[in-house]
Amino acid sequence: MKNIYFTVGPSQIYPTIKDHTFRALKKDIFSLNHRSKQFEELYQSIDTRLKELLSIPSDYSIFLLSSGTEAMERVIQNTVEGKSFHIVTGTFGDRFYKTSQELGKSAQAHVYDPLTLFKAKDITIPSDAELIALTHNDTSTGMQIPAKEIYEIQAKNPHALIALDAVSSMPYMDIMYDKVDCVFFSVQKGFGMPAGLGILIVSPRAMKKAKQLQEKGVSIGSYHSFLSLEKSTSKFQTPDTPNVFGIYLLANVLQDFLGKGIDVIRKETEIKAKMLYDFFESSDIFTPLIQDTAHQSKTTIVAQVKGGSTKLTKMLEKKGYRIGSGYGERKDQDIRIANFPAHRIEDIKGLIRCIEELVA
Amino acid sequence: MKNIYFTVGPSQIYPTIKDHTFRALKKDIFSLNHRSKQFEELYQSIDTRLKELLSIPSDYSIFLLSSGTEAMERVIQNTVEGKSFHIVTGTFGDRFYKTSQELGKSAQAHVYDPLTLFKAKDITIPSDAELIALTHNDTSTGMQIPAKEIYEIQAKNPHALIALDAVSSMPYMDIMYDKVDCVFFSVQKGFGMPAGLGILIVSPRAMKKAKQLQEKGVSIGSYHSFLSLEKSTSKFQTPDTPNVFGIYLLANVLQDFLGKGIDVIRKETEIKAKMLYDFFESSDIFTPLIQDTAHQSKTTIVAQVKGGSTKLTKMLEKKGYRIGSGYGERKDQDIRIANFPAHRIEDIKGLIRCIEELVA
Question: What is the pLDDT of residue B214?
């Protein structure tokens, strides 16, 4: 039986991934030297294509890391001397907050009740916060922060850098990059790739901060400090031996995405999300966990299930539909469905039909 | 034309890798959740198989990182409060030394002239060094430190922890693990895998040191601190989303290695190394860079080429044999040939024959 993975990550692979893998084997990509011209061309094409796809300014840096979690560590090390401020809407915001504490910084947090909608005006940020960290899309609740709330925070705190965890909302997330400084994501979600690669987008302002910290004698890390990364990236190399196969896949998936067009990808994401939300809203059994449309995630759809979700999740698995259970304490109450570019409209239709049959 | 990669890493892939990749695609490994039972079983099998293959004590921890370079950073963060001591025999020893400096430690080094043979008795190590770092096999010169020299250093400095970079000598390296504390390698060399995974083996003594540092309020890092790794590893999970495909391949390659037997792998490595050294020694054109047999690397064979190496390297490439040029300033003087389990005896014979024809 062929499975379709609606898990929130690792998730369904993008339809072209298998062919790219076969081509990688043919082209000896598993043996490709990371100091070769061919590797540099791959990295350069990622830089060019990602900037084109997401309208990232050309003077921003694109760094290749190993995970979104690593990105949190590198962001804190390179942008915070004293104080970071964290808007915690779920587990990953909390992970970011703890990372800062573990690295010996003075971290402060505004912890949201998971189901409270995000409003910039509710949050008081101390004027000495050097970094404000947010999670764009929370996969535990399916709450997504509207871009205008992020802009409002940025406008009110012009001296702070803004770090945005976009792990589960890229490439859908549409943001003006001149208003944010460190944006990161990993490839096993919206890019439909195997896990093992994290991408960190860094503004010139954040680069400058890293340089200032180093000049002051603050440790900004070693091989993956922003300055070490930048030195290698200027030649389209990496300081360490990276996941070359992942980098090859990413270069190719980006080309596929450009071929399709970001507008089409975003539009399809919204159409598929609406299909799921409409279905849940019309049902007596399901209730979307987040009610406000502006805050409803388009990439992670979470719904409460009357009578519990465990039985349904297991029955769907038998039919080849792998969906996520609820997060943490809500494990047996909710279902969570990823909606990434790898999920076709007919996959969503099939999933809805299957749920309808099972709960009928 | 089929290429054979004798580059020192990334290098030739192990003969089973392609089939493991096809099976991975069939089994949806690219979509495998890193919090699933199936993932835990993979990690557990790596733990069991690696310990069996290399005779690692059962109370040592096996951590999954992203590269050997990352391992250097984690080792320094978790075992050094004040002073580390580095025996620098080449570029990677220097990278380890710089890592400690960059992380704000007081790092001291004994820097060898690259072609001086390693002798433990020549090195004076300060009594307050908390960590002694060595590179087992130096890929720039082809110099390998004999195990007895490492034991001598350990015996003379019983209070220090020993960190051993075994990136380019595993699984060939045969060491008594109770005499070393942090041993690391990456998979794109001796394990014949695509790059993107680093393995760190940690002794209970080093774990204890990390705990002491944390209790003293020294930052030991965040998600990849020894304590955070240990907490996840106790459930055979990882703190972050790792390179799941790499982990799948490693579990399978370890099984292949166990099937073959470590004694056979080591014996074959020595036979192939001897073939290359004998050939170079019998030739008027080549001279092994390291003359002393006990210090000659068995996994990276480096030879000076009379009249320069560039032309030969390029001619070999045209015949499908990819070998390494000399390292750094010796780029045009030497050739470097990797000798890993993926390289069959007939591959080495073919390479030697081809070189003979080209220089005839």
Answer: 97
Nearest chain B alpha carbon to A18: B25
Taking the C-alpha atoms of residue B278 and residue B288, their distance in angstroms, rounded to an integer, is 9
Whether A10 contacts B31, CB under 8 Å = yes
Q: What is the pLDDT of residues B85-115, one digit of tens each?
A: 999 998 899 999 999 999 999 999 999 887 7
Q: What does the pLDDT read at residue B328?
A: 87
Contact A11 B31 (CB under 8 A): yes
Which residues of chain A are within 8 Å of residue B222 when distances are taken between CB atoms? Answer: 72-73, 76, 98-99, 102-103
Mean pLDDT of chain B: 96
List the structure tokens of B274: 């001897």
Q: Is B346 on the interface with A (CB under 8 A)?
A: no
Give the Cα separation of A106 and B44 in Å (integer): 37
DSSP three-state, residue A355: helix
Q: In sequence order, what are the beta bridge partners of A163?
A: A133, A182
The CA-atom distances, in angstroms, between B184 and each of A100, A169, B189, B203, B214 are: 27, 35, 12, 12, 22
B150 Cβ contact list (under 8 Å, min separation 6):
B120, B134, B136, B162, B164, B175, B179, B180
Closest Cα of chain B to A194: distance in Å?
Answer: 4
Instruction: Give me the residue from A73, A98, A194 closest to B245, CB to CB.
Output: A194
Binary contact (B11, A31; C-beta < 8 A): yes
Q: Please identify among residues 113-152 of chain A the ones whose CB lies closer than 8 Å to any CB of chain B.
A: none
Identify the bridge partners of residue A135 per DSSP, sorted by sequence position: A165
By the CB < 8 Å criterion, does B321 face chain A? Answer: no
Q: What is the pLDDT of residue A360?
A: 82
Residues of chain A with pLDDT under 70: none
Look at residue B47 and tell me whether its pLDDT is greater than 90: yes
Q: Do A244 and B10 touch (CB under 8 A)?
A: yes
Q: Which of A102, A103, A243 sits opposite B196 (nearest CB)?
A: A243
Q: What domains, with CATH codes, occur in chain A?
A: 4-11+262-359 (3.90.1150.10), 17-259 (3.40.640.10)
Which of A21, A30, A72 best probes binding to B when mutated, by most B CB atoms within 10 angstroms?
A30
- What are the residue ranges of helices labelled H in chain A? 17-26, 37-54, 68-79, 91-102, 147-156, 204-215, 226-233, 244-260, 262-282, 310-318, 345-359
Query: Per-residue pLDDT tens for B214-229?
Result: 999 999 999 999 999 9
Select the residue of B18, B225, B245 nearest A25 (Cβ to Cβ). Answer: B18
Is A269 in a helix, a strand, or coil?
helix
Decide: pTM greater than 0.95.
yes
Nearest CA in chain B to A196: B243
